[in-house]
């Protein structure tokens, strides 16, 4: 009987975590969707606002703020967007969902530069605002973006990744200074999942991305983390009461 109670409690805990994760993803998606819809309206009469896709890393920014010298090999600019997708959580939730389709990262393509010497634009250098990128799917899979010209304005233009397993791609739109929108086909999702997808899955998954270093997002992520830790601690105490079944 106690074993059955423990199993039931674990199922309830799983569903509770899924609901909490789903709500968190929906809140982030609403923020990005508002930016996306506003951009579509703006493009009807002109172009989107200027953006800088690549920025100093947080560590470098802190060094500069403190007036300290930045080592040459750390001068490369980059930006990472955390990804949120309600459809993915709804249909593909795992205990470790936070480790799947977690972020998309872009960084300078500095081909031809001796980064240890800090050369900025030597003869023969191919870097002129170009970027590479990848979407982290899980510890075994990622979608890569070959060198692309970093956009200087937000737009609904879609940039496509390289082919994954010779047939799958993801499309990404740089819709704001701190925001991206990414679309992924059901087939591409299924190609990276360990289990078959449920029939309820949409044909296309919409992921919304927010700059990982955005202060408001960092605060929300930390709050979400602390709440998760508190829930796990409480559940551990409950499960510990069902002795003899570890």
Task: Describe the overall structure.
The structure is a single chain. The protein has 246 residues and is an alpha+beta fold. It has one domain. It is 37% helix and 21% strand. It contains five helices and eight strands; from the N terminus they run H-H-E-H-E-E-E-E-E-E-H-E-H. The chain has helices at 2-43, 58-65, 86-92, 186-192, 215-240; strands at residues 78-84, 103-108, 130-136, 142-149, 159-160, 170-176, 179-185, 204-211. Strands 4-3-2-1-8-7-6-5 form an eight-stranded antiparallel beta sheet. Strand 3 and strand 4 (142-149) form a beta hairpin. The longest helix is centred in the first third of the chain and has 42 residues, at 2-43. It is globular, with a radius of gyration of 21 Å.
- Which structural class best describes the helix and strand composition? alpha+beta
Q: How are the strands of the largest sheet arranged?
A: 4-3-2-1-8-7-6-5
CA-based shape = globular
> Could you give the count of β-strands?
8
The CA-CA distance between the termini, in Å, is 15 Å
Count of discrete domains: 1
Rg, Cα atoms, Å: 21 Å
Low-confidence stretches: 114-119, 121-127
Helices and strands, in order, run as HHEHEEEEEEHEH
Query: What is the quaternary state of this protein?
Result: single chain
Q: Count up the helices.
A: 5
If you average the pLDDT, what whole number results? 85
What composes the largest sheet? 8 strands, antiparallel
Helix content: 25-40%
Q: Roughly what fraction of the amino acids lie in strands?
A: 15-25%
């Amino acid at each position: 009987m106690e074993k059955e109670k423990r199993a039931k409690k674990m199922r309830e805990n799983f569903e509770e975590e899924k609901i909490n994760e789903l709500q968190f993803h929906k809140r982030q998606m609403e923020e990005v969707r508002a930016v996306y819809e506003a951009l579509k309206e703006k493009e009807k009469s002109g172009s989107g606002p200027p953006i800088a896709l690549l920025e100093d890393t947080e560590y470098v920014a802190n060094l500069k703020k403190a007036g300290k010298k930045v080592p040459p090999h750390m001068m490369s600019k980059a930006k990472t967007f955390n990804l949120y997708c309600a459809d993915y959580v709804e249909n593909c939730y795992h205990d470790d969902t936070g480790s799947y389709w977690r972020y998309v990262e872009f960084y300078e393509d500095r081909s031809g530069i001796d980064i240890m010497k800090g050369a900025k634009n030597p003869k023969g250098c191919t870097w002129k605002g170009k970027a590479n990128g990848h979407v982290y799917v899980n510890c075994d899979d990622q979608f890569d973006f070959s060198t692309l010209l970093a956009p200087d304005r937000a737009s609904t233009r879609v940039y496509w990744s390289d082919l994954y397993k010779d047939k799958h791609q993801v499309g990404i739109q740089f819709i704001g200074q701190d925001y991206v929108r990414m679309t992924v086909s059901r087939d591409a999702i299924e190609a990276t999942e360990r289990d078959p997808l449920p029939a309820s899955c949409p044909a296309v998954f919409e992921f919304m991305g927010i700059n990982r270093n955005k202060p408001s997002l960092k605060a929300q992520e930390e709050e979400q983390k602390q709440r998760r830790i508190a829930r796990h601690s409480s559940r551990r105490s409950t499960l510990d009461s069902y002795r003899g079944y570890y």
